[in-house]
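Cross-posting from the chemistry board since nobody answered there.

I work mostly on the small-molecule side, so proteins are not my area. We synthesized zinc ion and want a rough idea of how it might sit in this target. Sequence and SMILES are below. Is it possible to get a predicted 3D structure of the two together?
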Amino acid sequence: METFIFKGNDVVIPAEGWALHSIEAISTGEVPQVGKWLEIDGERSLPDGWRTVPRRTLWEVMGERTFAVANRLYAEMDWRTNSRFCGRCGSPMEDMEDRGRRCPSCGNTSYPVISPAVIVAVEKEGKLLLGHNRAFPGKRYSVLAGFVDLGESLEDTVKREIKEEVGIKVCDVEYFGSQSWPFPRSLMVGFRAKWLEGEIEVDGVEIDHADWFAPENLPEIPGSVSISRRLIDDFIARWS
Ligand SMILES: [Zn+2]
């Protein structure tokens, strides 16, 4: 099984000939059939010749499969860190046989939590709605996304998020595909939707600019093989 070394939000690439036992890990673990991890202190400096790659850009540097395996292991490690103590009474949690954790004092159990989010390609007369999120690098634009709230269906979330972020109403919400997105522990569920009514009016909080773009006139868009890019490519394929 492959072993990954994590340091903060980075994956560590050791120099040739490195030895596992030489690493002082603050946590270790494994996911059966997937791989093992070692976590080293984020403040520690690395030996000569070692380098780090941010988990987000692992896709570009080492390919889709490595990105998926590393992030699967990271998600497990992250969950274990966040479930050390019982959220109800504060006692240390114990491992159960089925990979969950249980509190020996009050019986509370804990399993990995995934936060679903929707990502939506809204179309209007052959144009695609793209927004610039304040958190995006530079002038990059993308399809809009948001987390599912308690009590919502995915379709509810699509309608609410688009209304909140750019002030328009959408209809014909149609499932497109999904992607595990480990930043920090999400499942992105992609949809296509159609403009129904309203003019674009950005919220100014998350989105500072949004507009309708024709396929031949797109701004800078995500470069990686993320579901946002797949939604945009799907739009281009159908309208150009
Ligand atoms: Zn407890």
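Reply from a structural biologist on the board:
Welcome over. Reading the output above for you: Residues 64-82 form the longest helix (19 residues). The helical segments are 58-62, 64-82, 154-166, 227-239. Happy to explain the token format if needed.
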